[in-house]
Amino acid sequence: MKSRIIWVGVAFVIWSVIGYAAGRDIKINIYNGGFSQISETRVVRINSSLTEIVLPDVAEKIDPGSISIDGNGVEIHSIIYAYDLISTDRLLRKFINREITFNKDDSLEIGTLLGYDDDNIFFAPRSGKGAVAIYERDDFKYVELSGLPEALVLQPVIIVKAMADKPGDKSLHLSYLTEGLGWRAEYRLAYDPQKNSGFEGWVLLDNQCGAAFPEASIVLVAGQVDRDKPEGSASQSESGLLLWQATSKLEPLVDYHRFTLPLKATLNEMDNKQAPLFKVDGVKIDHYYKFKWSETKADVKSVIAFVNDRSIGLGFPIPPGRISIFDDASNAFLGSSLIEGTPNGEKVEIFMGTAFDIKAERKRIDHKKIGRDKNSDTFEIKIRNHKSEKVKVVAAEELYGYWEIVDKSDDFTKKDFQNIEFEVSVEPGKEKVITYTVEYSY
């Protein structure tokens, strides 16, 4: 059991020796890689001589090398990121070989702290003439230390030493990268096979970085950003639902895309909040089944797809995320899938689950060596439809080497250098057989 320690006057000791900075204008770029760029403007009072200023309310998981501070008419001399937080063990470690006072059995014990472990405290009483006492941690009911050890803080802070060309209030611009503040996209599709479906996107903001950000302007950055992490970097509350009526603003950013949320929001520590990205009602859905033996073996996947197009109210890059499909009439859950980031004009393909009434099997029915570096294979794909209506099935085949289809039962589409797709219709209660012969050369 850990000892209970009572502190008196610690906050006064910390904040009375350095100037306090108040007033914040915050902008956050949140990347879908789980990190963020915090940019703030804080108004602080700076003298024309060297002034020490504390900037509290910063993240616990900052990349220290990313900290940048500047201001007009301000000369920055040094920046310190102090994140050695107060805890029982940290304080005891700082006071080894120093004098402490504690209460035991209603009497005060004064002496030197020699060391400690998880269960015991090793103590040299002042009056003990070289004796060493071992106390259980439970014996420490009240401990008084002679002062706050250097570098320990109640919360992470950035300490700036700066001087101004003229004394007075100055605007300091602070920027840093932090882990623990990220976002992801969640989508909901109300599927209606008879008419156009409803499609909406939400963003989930998850703040685990150890700081709160009041009234922040939030920009979501979609795209895979490469970032090397330095070694040794620092490493239940209310949940809210943010409802914005306006549509998020989309802007390109080099090879990425930025979604600017239309209203400012407060991100409290440990918050998980939601905000809408878009909502459209005119999505024309294509429903079919897909069989790809190289990935699913005998399973046939139920697929719905649509094109990201301006004509249905989209036509902007869709960030990667999870999409959940619900039946529009009954609101029954039909399945969920991850979707990749999809640029304007590209197809969004959603795998809802494994089809129960569509069965498929694939086998190689012939193999020949037709040359020194050339083989021939013939494949047969059987698709059986046990449903009461006709279905569309895409049979996707993965080829290798230098290949050429020399015979086929049905037309195919070449998707890329090693993938082809046969799109066929299968009548209810019937079986469709696809055959093709491919020659490989090496």
What is the tally of beta strands?
34
**Please, how many helices?**
3
- Calculate the terminal CA-CA distance, rounded to whole Å: 69 Å
How large, in whole angstroms, is the Cα Rg?
32 Å
Task: Kindly report the average pLDDT value.
Answer: 82
Structural class comes to mainly beta
How would you characterize the largest beta sheet? Answer: 8 strands, mixed
Query: What's the helical proportion of residues?
Result: under 10%
So what's the overall shape? elongated
Characteristics of this structure?
3 helices; six-stranded mixed β-sheet; 442 residues; single chain; mainly beta; disordered N terminus; elongated; SH3 type barrels
Briefly characterize the structure.
The chain has 442 residues and is mainly beta. The chain has three helices and 34 strands.
Verbal overview:
With 442 residues, the protein is mainly beta. Among the domains are: 88-152, Roll (SH3 type barrels); 181-278, no CATH class; 358-441, Immunoglobulin-like, CATH 2.60.40. It is built from 3 helices and 34 strands. It starts with 9 loop residues before the first helix and ends with a strand. Residues 1-21 and 231-255 have low confidence and may be disordered.
Helix and strand layout, with pairings?
Elements: H1 10-15, E1 19-20, E2 22-31, E3 35-46, E4 51-55, E5 68-70, E6 74-82, E7 84-85, H2 88-94, E8 99-104, E9 107-116, E10 120-125, E11 133-136, E12 142-145, E13 152-153, E14 157-164, E15 168-179, E16 181-191, E17 197-207, E18 213-222, E19 249-253, E20 256-260, E21 265-267, E22 272-283, E23 286-292, H3 293-296, E24 301-307, E25 321-327, E26 333-339, E27 347-354, E28 358-371, E29 374-385, E30 391-398, E31 402-408, E32 412-416, E33 419-426, E34 431-441
Parallel strand pairs: 1-4, 2-18, 7-13, 16-25, 23-30
Antiparallel strand pairs: 2-3, 3-15, 4-14, 5-15, 6-14, 8-9, 8-12, 9-10, 10-11, 16-17, 17-22, 18-20, 18-21, 19-20, 23-24, 24-27, 25-26, 28-29, 29-34, 30-33, 31-34, 32-33
